[in-house]
């Protein structure tokens, strides 16, 4: 099984974009991979390609699922075959030019930082040489882009923070944090939408929940959307 490299030093911002590769996954799916490391360019390329597929998907594709550095395509083997589909995808990739990603929607999300809602905020700030208030100000200084959703229903990855806010994940795992928990690690901020265990730093809580099971689609945020974080009550 393929695993991309997750650096504790944060995402690779300036690494060159590799040539996309197409990997078969069983008899009903293909993975279009844009990188082996989590990086800005690879993520933007994956998001942009998923959007192009949404606009003009080859025959037989049933599901398009962008991830951090790849796009998973599930297809109906009765309507296409993997060789034909891979050829169509290669043609789309060869005709595509790397260009600035069109920003998605902007969402304002208020966060209750620190205290019982964010028990790791003080230690995270100290590890970065900041006071808690300086950390919150730096965290909220610029909008973050939605990199992908996944891992658990509605779980959202947002990035990227500058290098001054790079901090490895915790060495131990919390057994369970509630929905709406705001997490911080590896140059990113994440938001939970269901109760999950985590090794990320818990820095706050939000009333925003990115998962409504009876809606279609069940998630509110989409890859490429912008998140403007603010401190609740200010």
Automatic annotation (TrEMBL):
Coiled coil: none annotated. Signal peptide: none annotated. It comes from the Bacteria. One of its GO terms (molecular function) is ATP binding. SMART domains: AHS1 (SM00796). Residues 20-221 form the Carboxyltransferase domain. InterPro entries: CT_C_D, Cyclophilin-like_dom_sf, PxpB. Pfam families: CT_C_D. Keywords: ATP-binding, Hydrolase, Nucleotide-binding. SUPFAM superfamilies: Cyclophilin-like, PH0987 N-terminal domain-like. This is Allophanate hydrolase subunit 1. The lineage of its organism: Bacteria, Pseudomonadati, Pseudomonadota, Alphaproteobacteria, Hyphomicrobiales.
């Amino acid at each position: 099984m393929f695993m991309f490299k997750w650096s504790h030093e944060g995402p690779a911002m300036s690494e060159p974009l590799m040539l996309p590769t197409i990997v078969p996954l069983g008899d009903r799916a293909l993975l279009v991979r844009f990188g082996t490391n989590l990086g800005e360019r690879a993520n933007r390329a994956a998001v942009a390609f998923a959007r192009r597929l949404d606009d003009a998907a080859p025959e037989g594709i049933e599901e398009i699922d962008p991830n951090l550095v790849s796009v998973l395509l599930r297809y109906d083997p009765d309507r296409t075959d993997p060789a034909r589909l891979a050829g169509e995808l290669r043609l789309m990739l060869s005709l595509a030019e790397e260009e600035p990603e069109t920003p998605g929607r902007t969402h304002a999300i208020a966060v209750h930082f620190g205290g019982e809602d964010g028990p790791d905020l003080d230690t995270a700030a100290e590890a970065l040489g900041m006071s808690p208030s300086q950390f919150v100000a730096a965290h909220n200084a610029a909008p973050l882009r939605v990199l992908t959703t996944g891992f658990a229903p509605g779980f959202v990855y947002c990035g990227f923070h500058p290098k001054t806010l790079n901090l490895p994940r915790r060495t131990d795992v919390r057994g369970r944090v509630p929905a709406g928990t705001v997490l911080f690690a590896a140059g990113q901020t994440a938001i939970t939408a269901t109760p999950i265990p985590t090794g990320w730093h818990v820095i706050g809580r939000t009333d925003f929940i990115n998962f409504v099971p009876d809606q279609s689609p069940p998630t509110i945020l989409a890859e490429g959307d912008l998140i403007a974080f603010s401190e609740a009550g200010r």
